[in-house]
Amino acid sequence: MLDPEGLARESVPGRGKPLVRLVARGPGHSTYRVMRDGQFYAMRLPLSPSAPVTADTLASWDVRVFSAVAAAQLGPAICHADPASGILVTKWVRGRTWTAASAKNSAQTTRIALLVRRIQALDVPPPRRAMRPDGWIHHYRAIGAELPASVGRSDWPGRAERHLAALAALPSYADVLCHSDLHRLNLVDGVAGLTILDWEYAHYSDPYWDLAGWLSANDLSEPDHRLLLEAYLGRAPCTEHVQRLRLLVWLFDYVCLLWSATHAHLQADAATARRTRILTARLGAAN
Q: Strand runs (DSSP E) across the chain, as ranges?
């Protein structure tokens, strides 16, 4: 068993007794708020302390991503990073979290488009984690194959393959850095602007992936899709741009549904059940 207080004493700056409180638990990590010597920090610990880590694993990738985003003032400053153990300590970011209503505000939509542009301008040193939509789908399908029940309708895997084929037929773009979990609860709006938290799923992929993720996670409508795309492009989108985003929104929804099924199997909760219902209804209604 991990000892969060003991690890905080070893990893968090300061000399006083650390006060540790669990604030979030994901599929691979737990995040704690730590106060020590009057300062606040976020300490991320792996759920499993036994997995071996080498220089080429995702733990090392996480540190390189966090270093790049901190240098660009897009993410919290790193205080301690140990790829061998998977422990990461950053400054606690102060500010407000957007409400569901503020995430739908047109001015905020424009800010998100510019934020995505800033993420994509970052250059994380190789080796890089790369994952296309088909990679996420195959990853969660492999996990789902071990679960007791299938996810969604029986024709959805076939629909996913058709969406992937249609996406592959469109003009290709160079992969860029994507946060891949861009929703309002991972944003802090403070005096320095928007800070993005939780880069656990960051990877290189399609430039529209984070746009699709923002639209999916915040359940935004078709007019919001076009507004976000126009703000991102800086001009009116053509048919190909609209089609690309539409395909990726469906694929992002499908990946999230597969993830929700995996998460519900490991840790059932009301929020995941509600999200599953929303995604199921939207995927079923989409063409």
A: 19-25, 29-36, 39-46, 78-82, 87-91, 176-178, 187-190, 193-196, 203-205
Residues 15 and 50 in one domain: yes
Q: Which of 68, 91, 114 is the last residue of a domain?
A: 91
- Token match 């407000």: residue? 96
Tens of pLDDT, residue by residue over 118-165, are: 999 999 988 899 999 999 999 988 876 665 555 666 788 999 999 999
CATH number of the domain where residue 188 is located: 3.90.1200.10
Domain hosting 105: range is: 100-285
- Which pTM value belongs to this model? 0.91
Domain count, the chain: 2
Read off the pLDDT of residues 176-235 as tens digits, 9 standing for 90 and up.
Answer: 999 999 999 999 999 889 999 999 899 999 999 999 999 999 999 999 999 999 999 999
Residue corresponding to tokens 């301690």: 80
Cα–Cα distance for residue pair 164/269, rounded to 1 Å: 31
